[in-house]
Design brief:
Layout lengths: L12 E6 L4 H4 L17 H17 L3 E4 H8 L3 H13 L5 H12 L6 H6 L2 E2 L11 H4 L6 E3 L8 H4 E4 L2 E4 L10 H11 L9 E4 L12 E3 L4 E6 L5 H13 L4 E6 L13 E5 L2 E4 L1 H4 L4 E7 L5 E6 L3 H9 L5 E4 L7 H7 L6 E4 L2 E5 L3 H9 L3 E5 L16 E5 L4
Helix pairs in contact: 3-9, 4-5, 4-9
């Protein structure tokens, strides 16, 4: 059942990991959106229904959909695994001796198949009502209702892990509020049959100290990976991952160096690979508003770094070994409309196969341009899902793709 094989962004999708948005979104509060890395409070029921459309299109393409919540429930059936997870959850940000003990006691009382929701939704004082030894935080008045924050970004499964070749990387999240999300991936990787109970090559681990998120990492081929560095991924993390990839036989890493700004949140909100010779791009990629470096392995484990002055098309042509790369610009690059469609993840698509992608239906100008370029577009409703500022690629973590011929 297990294995990972992802050597491109466009090979026919065979298995993908999703999370259906649920109770964690119900606890988003307008007063604390910035703290929770959110910008709106979506209708949770509608977000789930939109996500079901997304998942069903993937299934209809012939790919298997597995849910992170189901994989997690399966591994914590084992009481020792469940208790180890709870200990890690408490260590990762629960402050105070009495609060740690109380949260640990509460979570151990939760059935294994409810543990995902119990931790994802956040922990409130009400959850500790039946605990005998209540912590001091239970009694002290505080307008903030959570003793442990909810995890409203969990449906962006690409952020917290990513597959490259036959290995998986567990992201090191850049913000404290998202660090607990990777706990689910750690336990699934270690104990789930889907990852051969920890035998799938671990390319990057959450605790290395250098922040990296999967939205910044694009698998262009079995020899080349593109990585963005800006708001969420550090140059140090790119170096660390590049060294690992070079030891696994990769030959090049393209480093896209962005400003630390929300517009450039992840590489995949600016560029996705959609066909052998086509990329869907924000104008900042097509017109190269930033530096791009080519990293290659040098002698004695060193990394050679070359700042290239070439156009991005030429850089990608070299990386892919093809004669011509074509860009489909978001909203055609119109100075008003591209900003609108970029806000709704116009460049963020998930490829089901070459020239067969999923996008949000609200990006109508971009979708029409894709159709004219010969790309099959499978639009999904995103009125609620897009409020989280992520698109189809953000919401999916491919585990297996067919290799390109």
């Amino acid at each position: 059942m297990g294995s990972v094989n992802v050597k491109s962004e466009i090979g026919k999708l065979k298995r993908v990991m999703l999370h259906r948005p649920g109770v964690e979104l119900e606890n988003l509060m307008p007063d604390y959106l910035e703290r929770m890395l959110a910008e709106d409070t979506p209708d949770v029921k509608m977000a789930g229904e939109e996500h079901d459309v997304f998942a069903n299109i993937i299934r209809s393409s012939g790919a298997e959909v597995v849910y992170i919540e189901d994989m997690f429930a399966d591994v914590v059936k084992d009481e020792s695994v469940k208790n180890a997870f709870i200990d890690d959850y408490v260590r990762l940000g629960i402050r105070g001796m009495s609060l740690s003990d109380a949260v640990r006691e509460y979570l151990r009382s939760v059935p294994y198949d409810k543990l995902f929701d119990a931790t994802a939704k956040g922990i409130t004082r009400a959850d500790l009502e039946n605990i005998d030894k209540k912590p001091i935080q239970y009694f002290v008045r505080d307008e903030y209702p959570f003793l442990a924050d909810p995890l409203p970004n969990l449906y962006f499964t690409r952020d917290i892990s990513f597959s490259l070749g036959t290995g998986i990387a567990i992201s090191a999240m850049c913000t404290e509020t998202r660090m607990r999300e990777t706990l689910f991936i750690r336990y699934i990787h270690k104990y789930s049959e889907y990852f051969d109970k920890g035998n799938v090559d671990l390319l990057y681990d959450y605790n290395c100290g250098d922040g990296i998120e999967g939205g910044d990492v694009l698998s262009l081929s079995d020899k080349c990976v593109a990585i963005g560095s800006g708001e969420r991924t550090t140059v140090a993390a790119v170096e660390r991952l590049a060294k690992t990839l070079f030891s696994r036989g990769y030959e090049k890493v393209l480093l896209f160096k962005f400003p630390n700004a929300r517009t450039y949140m992840h590489l995949d909100v600016l560029m996705t690979h959609i066909d052998f010779d086509k990329f869907l791009t924000h104008p900042c990629v097509a017109d190269k508003w930033f530096d791009v470096y080519e990293l290659t392995p040098g002698a004695n484990g060193e990394i050679r770094v070359s700042l290239t002055t070439d156009a991005v098309e030429r850089i990608l042509e070299r990386a892919l070994g093809i004669d011509k790369v074509n860009f489909v610009k978001v909203a055609g690059g119109d100075p008003i409309q591209y900003r609108r469609e970029h806000w709704n993840m116009g460049a963020n698509s998930l490829a089901l196969a070459p020239a067969n992608i999923i996008t949000y239906n609200r990006n109508s100008i971009t979708n029409e341009l894709l159709d004219k370029a010969g790309v099959k577009v499978n639009p999904i409703p995103g009125g609620e899902l897009s409020r989280g500022r992520g698109g189809p690629r953000c919401m999916s973590m491919p585990m297996i793709r067919e290799e390109l011929k």
